[in-house]
Write a structure and sequence with these properties.
The chain is of the alpha/beta class. Helix content is 33%, strand content 21%.
């Protein structure tokens, strides 16, 4: 898979990393563009071989240094790729939906990875250097970019690229992909149609955003979706979508726009459905308040290992924002109608695994009760089904 990138640039012989740097510096010092003609001049000046194959190979390498994602570009264009991960110069991994695979691509050295990280950060309007050796930003094409420079990271500079989908999966598409049984798609469509408030939970990389986009694509066309996200990843197939994206502080520590601020702004924008791309901080307080004050049909994603862990996760986030434990559980019990949990199976495939409903105990604390458990081919009703059926207006 991919192309092995090494110091061996041409059949005619090897060009050392030092010689390649000389070519790069020669071009930069004279303000020359990276063209085959200019590369040939630089090679002659450096006393390096100037055969056609060597010139073209050096030209391609230098172009990779200044355009796109360099040697990672072919991987980003592979069908179904969601993540491209670089662990130093010698390890590149991809995820195409069935777990991580080692790609046959490598960099000449860590300096090449560092240059790529700095260039991609600059493309997103950020800076990454020894003073600030990490960066998290959305690139102009929608790709989510994160990097940590060596020696903070080992075995070298680490780069993570999360590829956004140009078009959302539909629920039918999830069924066709084996992520959801047909009967489960019916339950989820009823959940959205009933204007229930729900969370999509799961671990990192389990497909929460994909599932939420598919659910939002079933919202009736006349309704207005207002999306609040840390990084713009949701792509519902819907005619009326307004997106608000958070912004980190700049290098001087100014200009930050938090999710909590954007949730408050979204409430003034007449949303039919308030959507928080991922609840991860103090914005949970405003989201719960909104769902308790007439904003039906709201939804969000949240990191959790299981549906049963969602109340504890929301409690931890809300407590950090200053909301007491009793108030958190009271808000959750009144605001959330269901949790849709997604995860990876033992085969590495991402699937919708469960729909659960919140139940408040005698102690006032909320626990989740399984309403339906989803297998690759069927749906099995659990003890929480009567509660979910009642909320959806179905027969128990």
């Amino acid at each position: 898979m991919g192309v092995v990138i090494t110091g061996q640039l041409a059949p005619e012989g090897a060009l050392s990393a030092g010689a390649l740097d000389e070519v790069r510096e020669w071009l930069a010092a004279r303000g020359r563009e990276v063209t085959p003609t200019h590369v040939a001049e630089a090679l002659r000046a450096a006393g390096a071989p100037v055969g056609d194959a060597t010139v073209l190979a050096v030209h391609d390498r230098l172009r990779q240094d200044v355009l796109g994602a360099g040697p990672l570009e072919p991987l980003l264009r592979l069908p179904g790729v969601t993540d491209v991960l670089v662990n130093g110069a010698d390890e590149v991994w991809i995820d195409r939906g069935s777990g991580l695979e080692r790609a046959q691509v490598r960099f000449a050295d860590d300096a090449a990875v560092r240059r790529l990280a700095q260039r991609l950060a600059a493309a997103g309007g950020r800076r990454v250097d020894d003073a600030t050796p990490f960066c998290d930003v959305r690139l102009p094409d929608g790709t989510r970019f994160h990097a940590v420079l060596a020696p903070t990271a080992r075995p070298g500079t680490v780069v993570s690229l999360r590829v956004g989908r140009a078009r959302a999966f539909s629920l039918d598409g999830l069924v066709a992909a084996g992520a959801l049984p047909a009967a489960g798609a019916v339950v989820l469509k009823d959940l959205v149609a009933s204007r229930a408030a729900y969370l999509v939970s799961g671990g990192t990389g389990t497909g929460k955003t994909t599932v939420l986009s598919a659910l939002l694509s079933t919202v009736p066309d006349p309704e207005r979706l207002v999306l609040v996200e840390d990084a713009s990843e949701l792509r519902p197939d819907h005619p009326h979508v307004v997106g608000l994206e958070a912004r980190p502080p700049n290098a001087e520590g100014a200009g930050e726009i938090t999710l909590r601020t954007l949730v408050r702004q979204a409430l003034r924008m007449r949303p039919d459905r308030l959507v928080v791309g991922e609840v991860r901080g103090a914005e949970v307080v405003d989201m719960l308040a909104a769902l308790n004050t007439g904003h039906a049909g709201g939804c969000a994603t949240v990191h959790a290992n299981s549906a049963a862990d969602v109340p504890a996760r929301l409690e931890a986030l809300a407590l950090a924002a200053g909301l007491g434990r009793a108030a958190v559980h009271s808000q959750v019990a009144a605001a959330i109608d269901a949790v849709v949990h997604v995860g990876r199976g033992t085969d590495g495939l991402r699937r919708v695994q469960e729909v659960a409903v919140p139940v408040r105990g005698a102690d006032g604390l909320v626990a989740m009760r399984t309403a339906v458990e989803l297998t690759p081919s069927d749906v099995h009703r659990g003890p929480g089904w009567p509660l979910l059926a009642r909320r959806l207006g179905l027969s128990a």
